[in-house]
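Standup notes, structure subgroup. Blocker cleared on the 2-acetamido-2-deoxy-beta-D-glucopyranose input:
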Amino acid sequence: MRCKYIILLPILGALVGASCPSYDAIASKFAATLDPKTYQGFWYEVASANVFLTKGCECTRYNFSMTDDIHFTDIFTCNKDSPTGKPYVLENHGSVDPKTPGKMVESLGPVSPPYWVIQLWGNESAYDYSLVYACLDLIVTKSEYIYFFSRTSTIPEEQMSEMRAYASKYDIDLKNVKDVPMAGCTWKTQQAQKFSRGFLN
Ligand SMILES: *[C@@H]1O[C@H](CO)[C@@H](O)[C@H](O)[C@H]1NC(C)=O
Ligand SMILES: *[C@@H]1O[C@H](CO)[C@@H](O)[C@H](O)[C@H]1NC(C)=O
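Run returned:
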């Protein structure tokens, strides 16, 4: 018996060690201090990992908009199984941490899992790409989610490499990252333009 414990303990220790990082440890200052108003508008989910709710989704896009200084809606739309498939809409709600706006929570129901913007590309008046991470501590392991967002439906190869490198630097597992199919998609672009040009500004 004793022998078994000696073998098991280090294994358990290693599993418990697989816990989620803190926001401060993995977020850039630019992302942590983002301006929620500038973050508003459409975000295309060009690639992601471990998002079970959105299985079979194509043309995935979020419409992020602040409802007050702290709260937002982030309406998710995709087409199931083909670019002309049945639209699938989820009305997510969330909030930003007033002191650290990049540290968001977002949910559909009563639970508020993290939705952390860990790095942004662009400038102070326009964010072009966003790397969003969520991690849930489970009892002996963790569950990680990662999203590669863009203001358009594509991310140039060089930009994608930079985003992957950022995640890898913080030991975020990228082996399950998959491209979201975007070929043949049509979106309401007119509304998109109007919206990103200054809703609430
Ligand atoms: C995006 O969200 C805003 C705020 O809720 C809304 O006014 C706008 O119509 C939405 N755009 C689309 C294309 O759904
Ligand atoms: C910020 O980026 C946007 C989009 O990439 C660009 O159009 C704009 O000129 C930039 N503004 C500044 C102040 O650099």
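Discussed briefly. The mean pLDDT is 86.
Next: hand off to the docking folks.
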